[in-house]
């Protein structure tokens, strides 16, 4: 009986039927010897050679798949990072002069500086009309002119503050939309990573199991050789 690969005579006890070879190793041998059939025989040394080649290919394939997973994750994260990078630009567009004035007036009108300054103004107004100009006050009690000024100030200040609040509300709504997009992006990324990790664990377990099966074949062949050598010596 000759080996189909090397065409050399096979030693007794070392002939391997191609039909008994593991499917993955058999397909690997078929890549180098397409005319191999299940009825052909090869030597044990040749089978061990292709076993080592098969294990090497499994390890290289595993490394390649790990690198591909890392690359897919990095591309997914990089392509979606634009959502958080442009929030500042979109929520703060170019303001007109009126919008800037409205913001400044609303900010000043809601500060302690305005409250204290206006309180000092009112006290000075009252004291001047009661004590300093007691004989000829320009706004005698009950301070009708002061009430008119306060009414005009309130009538002007209210719509200005509302303008600023409306614009701030629109900005907050746009920011909320961006926050939702970022949360959705994070959720999708976590789901992608979870799927990749699950796939990686299942694939690694399958590869490890296949490697263990090849190692078991090695051990079985070694046991056969030991038994044959023992029987010959006896």
Automatic annotation (TrEMBL):
Q: Is Cell membrane among this UniProt entry's keywords?
A: no
Which residue windows are transmembrane per the record? 110-132, 144-163
- The organism's superkingdom is given as Bacteria
- Would the keyword Heme turn up in this protein's UniProt record? no
Among InterPro entries, the record links this protein to: DUF1003
Q: Which UniProt keywords apply?
A: Membrane, Transmembrane, Transmembrane helix
What PANTHER family has UniProt attached to this entry? Answer: INTEGRAL MEMBRANE PROTEIN-RELATED, MEMBRANE PROTEIN
Protein's name in the database: Putative membrane protein
Give the organism the record lists: Algoriphagus aquaeductus
Phylogenetic placement of the source organism: Bacteria, Pseudomonadati, Bacteroidota, Cytophagia, Cytophagales
């Amino acid at each position: 009986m000759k080996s189909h690969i090397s065409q050399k005579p096979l030693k007794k006890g070392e002939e391997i039927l191609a039909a008994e070879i593991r499917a993955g190793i058999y397909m690997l041998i078929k890549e180098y010897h397409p005319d191999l059939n299940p009825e052909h025989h090869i030597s044990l040394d040749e089978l061990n050679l292709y076993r080592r080649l098969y294990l090497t290919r499994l390890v290289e394939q595993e490394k390649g798949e790990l690198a591909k997973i890392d690359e897919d994750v990095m591309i997914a994260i990089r392509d979606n990072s634009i959502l958080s990078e442009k929030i500042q630009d979109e929520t703060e567009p170019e303001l007109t002069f009126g919008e800037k004035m409205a913001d400044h007036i609303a900010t000043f009108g809601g500060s302690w500086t305005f409250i204290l300054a206006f309180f000092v103004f009112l006290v000075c107004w009252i004291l001047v009309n009661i004590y300093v100009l007691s004989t000829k006050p320009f706004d005698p009690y009950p301070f009708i002119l002061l009430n008119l000024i306060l009414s005009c100030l309130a009538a002007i200040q209210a719509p200005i503050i509302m303008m600023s609040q409306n614009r701030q509300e629109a900005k907050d709504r746009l920011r909320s939309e961006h926050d939702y997009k970022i949360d959705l992006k994070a959720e999708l990324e976590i789901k992608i990573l979870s799927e990749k990790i699950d796939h990686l664990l299942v694939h690694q377990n399958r590869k490890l199991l296949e490697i263990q099966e090849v190692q078991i074949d090695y051990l079985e062949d070694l046991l056969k050789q030991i038994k044959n050598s023992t029987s010959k010596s006896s």
